[in-house]
Amino acid sequence: MSRLLLGVVLLGNLSVCVKAQVTLAPPAQVKFNSTDYRNILHWTPAPSSSSLQYDVQWKIYGEADWLDVDGCQGVQKLHCDLSAVTSEPREWYYGRVRASSVASSSKSGWTLSPRFSPRWDTKISPPALKLNLTEQSIVVRVKSPRTLVRKLHSNLHYTIYVTNTNGKEEVFQINCCSNKLTLKNLDHNSKYCLQAQTVIPLQAKSSARSSE
User: Does 134 fall in a domain?
Assistant: First the structure.
């Protein structure tokens, strides 16, 4: 009987401390933005959240394992360059991001991006034009972004649009290995405006026209 009473007294004096677990809201609007095969994953922080860090992972569609992205673990920025790990144009990829708080040692759930294809989802930039004028001609040289040339050099073509003061437009095609066009037989009393467009025939993809 005395042991039972002692046990009740000891139990009555116990105090239990419970640390409240802070639940972090996950990042929002996780998606790839890709231009000329430079594949950047972007996200936005949850409302009313500050001083957070983010972890980024990626995987190939159909595979089970998620992989950490080097240089994008515990970062405070709201984007991550995944070009190196999403470099195969024919594959489909996912990215995901979670938030963590150093102050509370808590982590949010993961937010998944839509499925991403470098081949179909990347936007192509128009080339830059450099013009050299002579008394008899205009020599047009075309230069594409370096990342695009490295990825698709043999598949790049260019369309050059030449418009004169009368509004007449002529269209010229340049293949990947030339990058130069010479315009001859020009009217010396006319003004000419030029634009260019990058074309990838194998993907049925083209850029917008460059500015004049």
Answer: yes
| pTM: predicted TM-score of the whole model, two decimal places | 0.79
Place of tokens 């046990």: 7
Instruction: Let me know if residue 21 belongs to a domain.
Output: no
**176 belongs to a structural domain:** yes
Q: pLDDT tens for the chain, 212 residues: list them.
A: 444 443 433 344 444 444 455 578 999 999 999 999 999 999 999 776 678 999 999 999 999 999 999 999 999 999 999 999 999 989 999 999 999 987 778 999 999 999 999 999 999 999 999 999 888 899 999 988 877 777 777 788 999 999 988 888 999 998 877 788 999 988 888 899 999 999 988 888 899 999 98
Whole domain around residue 84: which residue ranges? 28-121
Q: Are residues 114 and 155 in the same domain?
A: no
Domain count, the chain: 2
Does residue 53 form part of some domain? yes
